[in-house]
Amino acid sequence: MPKIVIAGDSTAANKFEIARPETGWGEKLSWFLPDTYQVINFAKNGASTKSFIKEGLLAQAEAALSKGDYFLIQFGHNDQKITDERGTTLEEYQHNLAKYIQIAKEKAAIPILFTSITRLYYDEDQLDLEAVGGYPAAMRAFAEQYDILCLDIFTATQNYFNGITQAEAQSHFLHLPVGVHPNYPNGIEDNTHLNAHGATVVAQLIAQALKQTDLPCAKDILTK
What we know:
This protein is an alpha/beta fold. 33% of the residues lie in helices and 17% in strands. Helix 3 (90-106) crosses helix 4 (135-146).
C-alpha cells in the first residue's frame, strides 16, 4: 500500500476536538484517494521547516517513508514569523527544504513541494499576493533550481477565493460569531485556519493539482 506522508503546519494538521471546527486539509485528503493509499499526517500546529526538524517530526516522517511513497511538504506560515524562534529567513527556509528533499531521496520516496495555502488577507477586493510573504516564491525558486516537483497551492487557493465573495471565502475559514460554538464562546475571526468545509475544498484543490501531474498516483486520484 503506497503511503502519502505529510510534513507541514496547522493548515494541514490533524486537530484535537477542543479546536473544532478548525480542520486541516490533511484530514480530508483521503477523501480523494482510493483505499489502497494510506495518509500519514505529521503536520503540526505552529510548525515551521525549522521547528519540525528540531522537534523530531522530520525524523518520524523519515521513519514512515518507504520506497515509492509520496512525501508532501508544505510550510511557510510559521517560517514567515521571523521575530519568533520558529521563523526562518528565505535563505534558511530553502536550506531547510533541502533537508526534506534529501531524506525523501535517501528513502527512494517521491518528494512533492506544496506552496502554502493563502491567508485570507485582502488588498482591496483581491487577496494580498504577499499573504504568506515571500515564502511561496522562495519555494518555487528552490524547486526550479533543483528540479523538484512543486505544486503551487498558494496560487490555486488565491484563485479559488478570489473567485467568490469575501463573505463566501470567510465561510471556509475559522470565522464564528459570539456564542455559536462552545470551543469559541467569544467568537473568532481567523483568516489562516480552515474549517471542515474549507479543508475539504483545499484538499480537493490539492487532489486536482496532483491529478494533473505525471506521477504514478495521478491516475488514482478521485475527483468529486
